[in-house]
Amino acid sequence: MRESMVAGIAAVLLGAAAPALGKVAPVEAKILGQELTPVGAERSANSAGTIPAWTGGLKTPPNGWRKGEVEINPFPEDKPLFVITAENLHLYRDKLSDGHVRMLEQYGSDFFMPVYQTRRSAAFPEHVYEKSRENAVKAELLDNGNGVRDTIMTSPFPIPANGLEAIWNHILRYRGTEVAFRSGSATPQRDGSYNPVVNDYEYFFGYSKKGAELPEIDNKIFYLKTDTISPSSLAGTITLVHETLDQIRSPRLAWRYDAGSRRLRRSPNLAYETNLPNSSSLRSVDQKDLYNGAPNQYDWTLKGKRELFVPYNAYKLHDSGVKPDDVIRARHINQSLTRYELHRVWVVEAKRRTGIGHIYDRRVFYLDEDSWQIVASEEYDQEGKLWRVSEAHNISYYSEPVFWTTMEMTYDLNAERYYIDGLDDGFPAYDFNPGFRGGDFTASAARRDARR
After folding, report:
1. What is the pLDDT of residue 452?
2. Is the pLDDT of residue 367 over 50?
3. At a CB cut-off of 8 Å and minimum separation 6, what does 438 contact?
4. How confident is the model at residue 444, as a pLDDT?
5. Which pTM was predicted?
6. Which residues pair with 244 in a beta bridge?
7. Quick check: 394 and 403 in contact, CB under 8 A?
8. Average confidence (pLDDT) over 384-411
9. Angle at Cα 168 formed by Cα 278 and Cα 436, nearest 5°?
10. CA 421, 236, 245, 354 torsion: positive or negative?
């Protein structure tokens, strides 16, 4: 890493070392909501004043938005402060990830990064903040690090001591209790031509349900069902996933219904380096959400913090009037619709364990300090060369206060192609209260849905 880290590990911030396996002493946890925000971010501005203090985030929707509508831009008057290009990247190199430096250098004038005023908009409900404080003094990693105990609802380690704790903060971050939405994905050719795949997504986050206790969630973080709407050759394909908290004790459960065979089958390999369905082999399953699943294939190191230009407040990409043709371009998306801001991010490095097979030998993740959302990552091949760069463009949703992706993509630097998910072709707003029940996500329920 070429630049010095900013702020150091949280234990250094506190002037004391955190326990190796999670929970901190109550006296240490008192800093949450004071010097640190309730989720563990530094509340204060940076010394240069280019990152403001956190004042609670975007607590209320902007005027003009009504419930049930797609979120509108809360900062419509904001204009880019400057634009980073291949020609001037030397002026900003210390605030750029290696992946973004490589993209600026490789794609030349085709790729640029418009940088806006930093808006620390991430906010969550108060009951989530309460659980964050409780998790801080209770949550512990399991002995093998592949699960967490005594945690519920949200990130378990707001004051992380190591890389495993930080990545679990991303995996278990609060995304509401349930949500339903329609989204398009694509893998454009080098000339920009593409054929979208449209899916309906249904999530039920039992782990995050208000009032839930750890024993009653049956080791499940969430349930996910996807139903392919188009193209016609794939329509009717259903995927069902039960995501588990300790995936070594109880591995992820997955089923897939193929409309051609008209059978629902277990999918034991829907994890790790397996190609993500409909990604043209441009993305692995564990890159969905930039990282998901059991962390047992890597050794994780918390490198500290940096101030970086990262995707943030992507309301232009989220706008209901923006269609797939407006977003997709040859080799990368339409960068004029992107927004980058200077934020403090946790840097976590994952190195493949000896004897483990995975297409990525090393990965670097950048986690937003205000939300624990991974906002960018880099994936390296077996020879140590940078192979792929991933981005998550995020917004604060209004009907349920969560900070989550609206669009994410993985760029393959060798093929000069990319996978993108989050395309909107006039689809309804995310529904954070669809009224799901746990029984809606059983294998038998998926079979019934497939027969309709």
Report:
1. 65
2. yes
3. 204, 206, 223
4. 92
5. 0.94
6. 220
7. yes
8. 98
9. 60
10. negative
Residues 6+ apart with CB under 8 A from 111: 86, 103, 104, 331, 332, 335
Token digits of residue 423: 């395309």
Burial 357-390 (b: 16+ CB within 10 A, else e): ebbbbbbbbbbbbbbbbbbbbbbbeeeeebbbbb
Q: With CA atoms as reference, report the closest residue to 342 among 375, 308, 316, 391.
A: 308
Burial status of residue 93 (CB atoms within 10 A of its CB: 0-12, 13-18, 19 or more): middle
Query: What count of other Cβ atoms lies within 10 Å of the Cβ of residue 59?
Result: 12
Backbone angles phi, psi at 81, to 5 degrees: -75, -35
Contact in structure between 301 and 348 (CB atoms under 8 Å): yes
Contact predicate 29/59, CB 8 Å: no
Q: Is the dihedral of CA 315, 320, 321, 322 positive or negative?
A: positive
Q: What is the pLDDT of residues 94-142, one digit of tens each?
A: 999 999 999 999 999 999 999 999 999 999 999 999 999 999 999 999 9
pLDDT tens-digit map of 246-298:
877 788 999 999 877 788 999 888 899 999 999 999 999 999 999 999 999 99
**Are the beta carbons of 263 and 257 closer than 8 angstroms?**
yes
In angstroms, the Cα distances linking 23 to 31, 93, 165 are: 14, 36, 10
Q: How many residues are given for the chain?
A: 452
Q: How far apart are CA 429 and CA 189, in angstroms?
A: 29
